[in-house]
TrEMBL record:
Keywords: Membrane, Transmembrane, Transmembrane helix. Residues 119-206 form the FecR protein domain. PANTHER family: PERIPLASMIC SIGNAL SENSOR AND SIGMA FACTOR ACTIVATOR FECR-RELATED, PROTEIN FECR. It comes from the Bacteria. The chain crosses the membrane at residues 77-99. It comes from Pedobacter cryoconitis. This is FecR family protein. The lineage of its organism: Bacteria, Pseudomonadati, Bacteroidota, Sphingobacteriia, Sphingobacteriales.
């Protein structure tokens, strides 16, 4: 597998597939990059070094926090040296290096991150004018200013995009499993842990690809692409229903109750328990308008499926 700055960015953002992560870490352990890179930046060398070491220190702190309860594995001293070198190279890979045969200087890409807790939604406008509506429980990582050749952001969760048109600079949305490429259009992406990635197009033309999959989908308005972990599948849908959440509307069209409860947990920051595992396969067809309250939704579900609900603090139990 060849390494380029896109793969390094994915690794840094924690969005690599297991195969991609293995390839990058193999490259790291060797200690020598496959290709030679030059660092070019308008910043003085001393400032660049400070910025790089700050990122390395931050990465170490985040890793320590994550692994506090994990088993400690001691690395040989020689590998630690290579690891530090690799982190430095990965930091450079966030946008401050170019290939030897490229002459224009590449400015440092400063990344920002918007992380939403459960129960909260938000919208932002990126530096190119693109509008992003982020659903509850989602995370968006994006550069403060895009590079000269492309616009690439990273998503965990769900977001609706109104991409500003720029034929000279394609817009990419990278998730852990898929890549969406557009020039200017409107679409919705779902990339939740434990669920298939879904792309729904409201307007324009969108390219949809997945890691380790040879398929490529070209989707138009009212079309959906799904990556099931092995292949890409397209279908015709009502895109208005897929983006209704941006207007405070919940639409369920023959949706499994297990998926409905997952959506409710994100919307209302609650935990929902099913007293009977068979309830997970119940299917719901319903619509809730005007930013409905949790009580309104639970009453509607209770009536439609002939089930009961009980609320205690931030926990909900559904039963027959």
């Amino acid at each position: 597998m060849s390494l380029d700055h896109h793969l390094l960015e994915k690794y840094w953002a924690g969005l690599c597939t297991p195969a991609e992560r293995k390839a990058v870490e193999q490259w790291m352990s060797e200690g020598i990059p496959e290709e030679s890179y030059k660092l070019r930046s308008p910043e003085p060398e001393s400032i660049m070094k400070d910025q790089l070491w700050q990122r390395i220190a931050q990465a170490r702190q985040e890793e320590n926090e994550i692994q506090q309860s994990a088993k400690i594995v001691r690395m040989p001293i020689w590998f630690r040296g290579f690891a530090i070198t690799a982190i430095l190279i990965l930091t450079i890979g966030l946008g401050i290096y170019v290939l030897n045969n490229q002459s224009p200087a590449t400015p440092l890409l400063v990344y920002q991150e918007l992380v939403l807790p459960l129960g909260k939604k938000a919208s932002i406008t990126l530096s190119d004018g693109t509008k992003v509506y982020l659903n509850a429980g989602s995370r968006l990582r994006y550069p403060k200013n895009f590079s000269k050749t492309e616009r690439r952001i990273f998503l965990n969760g769900e977001a609706f995009f109104e991409v500003a048109k720029n034929p000279e600079k394609p817009f990419y949305v990278q998730t852990k499993q898929t890549t969406t490429r557009v020039l200017g259009t409107r679409f919705n992406i779902q990339s939740w842990k434990g669920y298939f990635d879904k792309l729904n197009v409201e307007e324009g033309r969108v390219q949809f690809t997945a890691a380790g999959c040879i398929d490529t989908l070209i989707l138009h308005a009212n079309m959906q692409g799904v990556f099931d972990g092995h292949s890409l599948v397209q279908s015709v849908v009502n895109s208005a229903n897929k983006i209704a959440w941006t207007k405070g509307v919940m639409v369920f069209n023959d949706t499994k109750l297990s998926e409905v409860t997952a959506e409710l947990e994100r919307w209302y920051a609650v935990q929902i328990h099913l007293s009977d595992p068979e309830l997970a396969n119940y299917r719901l067809k319903a619509r809730f308008d005007n930013n409905p309250s949790l009580i309104d939704v639970l009453q509607g579900i209770s009536f439609a499926l002939n089930i009961k609900y009980q609320i205690k603090d931030k926990e909900v139990t559904l039963s027959r």
